[in-house]
Amino acid sequence: MPVTSREVHLVRRPDGAPVAEDFAMVMTEVPEPGAGEVRVRNLLMSVDPAMRPRMSVGQALNEAMMGGAIGRVEASRNPAFKEGALVSNRFGFREAFVSDGKGLSPVRDVAGVPLEAHMNALGGPGFTAYGGLLRIGALKDGEQVFVSTAAGAVGAVASQIAKIKGCYVVGSTGSDDKVRWLKDVAGLDAAFNYKAAPVRQQLRELAPKGVDVYFDNVGGDHLDAALASMNLLGRVAVCGMISGYNEAGARTNVRNLSNIIYGRINLRGFTAADFMDLRDEFQSNMADWLRDGRVKTHETVYRGIENAAAAMVDLMAGANLGKMLVRLAD
Amino acid sequence: MPVTSREVHLVRRPDGAPVAEDFAMVMTEVPEPGAGEVRVRNLLMSVDPAMRPRMSVGQALNEAMMGGAIGRVEASRNPAFKEGALVSNRFGFREAFVSDGKGLSPVRDVAGVPLEAHMNALGGPGFTAYGGLLRIGALKDGEQVFVSTAAGAVGAVASQIAKIKGCYVVGSTGSDDKVRWLKDVAGLDAAFNYKAAPVRQQLRELAPKGVDVYFDNVGGDHLDAALASMNLLGRVAVCGMISGYNEAGARTNVRNLSNIIYGRINLRGFTAADFMDLRDEFQSNMADWLRDGRVKTHETVYRGIENAAAAMVDLMAGANLGKMLVRLAD
């Protein structure tokens, strides 16, 4: 029996920040799986800042948005996937879909860890933070670290890994509530609201010994401020530049770049593809850290695919604390 | 007997491009060397783009400019330095000086190589090009390479090392004459005059396979153009950002920086301090390359300290081909 699935399509390219009218909900029919196929019902889907540049270039119009999700196999004619199994997939923004199994991977059960963690600290955001900080940023124990969007999914994990490594950690975020969370829950040494005063001034005050590693999720004024505070031989691990994502062509103005010459600074853009060899080590360490409470995470969870577009709009406005997810089914 | 020496002082901080009035010639008396001291008469001095940011910050006013030079010991009461020996030093912009020997190093005689080469391909510019390209840029044989200010001292050597390594090399420079030199003498695959059309457009046409390594001496529009052409896992070795040196605070606008994320680009500022371990290897290789004509160099040589300030002004206006030097004595 075919089932119905609601999908969120991108119907026009956002002009600046995305708005509800850039998206449309479309009802589709999902057939029974054919030979070698499975039908998956999504349970949780990710809403991620990196989706914003793809809305300008890459994401097809009038098709379902691409994005990470975890679903349950509800019908299978593929021996590799049993009915009832949980699979992570790149077919978010839809309730159900049929697949030949390519791009589906089993979700490992980790005792004591909720499903949400697999899309947060134990999933892509956590892995990005882990490899970005330790491999790309070449973090050494006890260094001076600055993390932007420190209360976001990747930033929160990066900040706490740096704390585990004995570093002095300053985080920036967009509200006083998030500043409190960073200091009181995540245990950062210092945190500031970037809307309250110029980033450069706040960073200089809160990082009096300068910055050895800057984990950049923002670009723009944050990167400029970090470059003005970087210590000799400092490293900038560039994970994202959300400050430019709503501008035409995802452009970012940075003026202090020449500081990298005499500071002998290494500025390196990366994706998780740069350190896939760390995958097992990461999963083992992070599962331990989550269980013993050394990494604390937070998710902002909207319910129902009818709220997926709103989650994207609100994410880009900074409404989330931690990972932004949409729960599609239980 | 004391001797007289003329020195070039910085008397005010340049507002934009340096002009003759920013400098003054001052006559000084240089005493006989005391115990442990030597008196050096400079023969050749360097004029370098990196001096421009120091004129805004670092170089004291109403003192002789600092800069590299090669001189001859003309009186010695220090057994480490014989009279007549050639020594490289950081006391350019003056005809003679007394030193206790600190910061003086002997110039190794290299058969078949003129003294000028020790301040060009065999000296600081050549070493900066060598380590910057091979260590910082991690150049691999046969890659696609872009070098800015390719007809300048560092750029000309970097371009030709890349050719020796079997790379496809595109250079940018500021006049049609220099374009011809790069193609006809230095043997680059392509070269363009950045004043003739937008850098981004010319680079895209002349580097149809993209850029794996960009050796940056310019920043600004050149770096932006390179970022738009960089291949996956490309490297940018940032040696200088001359485009910003005449602006307040040596600032540079770069807008395409977010390209480094998905391109997984490594952008690294450096000085020769990053690869001092390559010194012997460099000197041996470069002496060979100069002797067998695989590296061709050019110097623009002004005569007399009375023309040192003009050399600085003209360098920043791009009047030089190759290394800018001032010959102070024979």
How does this model look, in words?
The structure is a homodimer of 330-residue chains. In chain A, helix 3 (153-164) links the parallel strand 8 (144-147) and strand 9. The longest helix of chain A has 13 residues, at 124-136. Chain A has helices spanning 51-56, 124-136, 153-164, 176-185, 199-206, 220-229, 242-245, 259-262, 279-291, 308-316, and strands spanning 3-10, 23-30, 38-47, 69-76, 86-89, 96-99, 105-106, 144-147, 168-173, 190-193, 211-216, 230-238, 266-269, 299-303, 323-327. By secondary structure, chain A is of the alpha/beta class. The first copy, chain A, has two domains: 3-120 and 298-327, Medium-chain alcohol dehydrogenases, catalytic domain (Quinone Oxidoreductase, Chain A, domain 1, Alpha-Beta Complex); 124-291, Rossmann fold, CATH 3.40.50. The A-B interface holds A 53, 219, 223, 238-241, 244, 250-271, 273-274 and B 53, 219, 223, 238-241, 244, 250-271, 273-274. Strand 13 (266-269) of chain A pairs antiparallel with strand 13 (266-269) of chain B.
List the keywords.
2 domains, globular, 10 helices, Quinone Oxidoreductase, Chain A, domain 1, alpha/beta, 330 residues, Rossmann fold, 27% helix, homodimer, 6-stranded parallel β-sheet
Unreliable stretches of chain A? none
Structural class of chain A: alpha/beta
What would you say the CATH architecture of the largest domain in chain A is? 3-Layer(aba) Sandwich
Largest sheet of chain A: 7 strands, mixed
**Oligomeric state of the chains in view:** homodimer
Percentage of residues in strands of chain A:
25-35%
